[in-house]
């Protein structure tokens, strides 16, 4: 920001430069925004915008109708695409690589290239960025680490068809100088224009070293007006480099898929993406593509994994479009031999349709009870008799005896009930439950409430305990030993070996009755 007499002037920011508010980027018009304190272009999945010639523009794909070259999406090289006969097409000297990418044709040995198809002058192959005779080539490397940015012409020793502007003593206005003819160039300042009585660079040019410097693809009369290469009076990148999104600097290409990358442009020859890997960004295929070694590019998958935007786009049966825009097996199906076959519970016609081992195609039990039973019965994949359905889409054998071999609890529960578990690969009851009446039951000790006798737990002789009056009790003839959690058989003597109090009282009553009776008889006779 620049301070003036009574106000703060908001200074425009170029694409990719820092900003504080959106008005600094508004000169780029629709789609320009200040995001994360950087001027950029934005849009949505239906209307992406690209920075070109000082504006955020919606560019048209190849074969779309156009009015001028500037309408066409150029795929990281403005020389590659033109508006010809009213449609966007690859420019002369370029071929259609795929999608919206046009690549430069290299005809001679030693010409620049990235992929083999760039070399079209004969029996040539691309080796280390140069077209070579196939017989003289060796196997190329598949991985390279190269993400050089090219920000100035210092990297180059040659400027094609370019001249250096000489210094003269003639009057030349400077950027920011006052001017009077709005819309007209400022005197002696190439590629400038008078806007609101001040000298500015015109669209497609930016201030650099006191000159108006051409953005990539714009006219440049000399190297003074281009930070890269001047070729055919235009500021461009070298053949082995791509345009950066800011249209002011270039970035060098990479040699192959899986090479590290910094920008999407570097991956474009392979029709791949610059993916955010765990440690480093690399050129890799989209999820809906697979790498074709012959063509050296990522091609669309067919069937499983193919690109989609809706379910109807998926050509393989029993597939659905996933959030990552790839076709995958629908719910109720799993991949098997390149097809999507029904899992347990999935619809089927024959047992061969079912994907899971030990399943068979049977009539759905729920369908049998349907009121529309007159219609064709629905068949589904179910586990065979003697097998149980595990949540991992497996059919596992049901245990036939206590301590039988197992992998999951579900194998034990048909035999031992819902409390049965697979412990150390054996069907058993855990410590909180006990095995009785061929089931695992909750442990309920003597004197506690119960609902059935199998719940009542004693340490031995489990047949001597029962659930009576909703309480766990010993059977008649036994008494409870709660200390040892067992039922003990009753005897004539108590545990001390002496007559019990009950026996003593009974004997006293019998003796008293005998004495009373004897006294009565004696009185009757005497």
Automatic annotation (TrEMBL):
Pfam families with a match to the protein in the record: EB
EGF-like domain location: 65-103, 178-213, 307-341, 347-396
Key words of the record: Membrane, Transmembrane, Transmembrane helix
SMART domains from the UniProt entry: EGF
Superkingdom as given in the UniProt entry: Eukaryota
Transmembrane segments: 502-521
PANTHER family, per the entry: ECDYSONE-INDUCIBLE GENE E1, ISOFORM A, FI17111P1
The protein's name in its UniProt record: EGF-like domain-containing protein
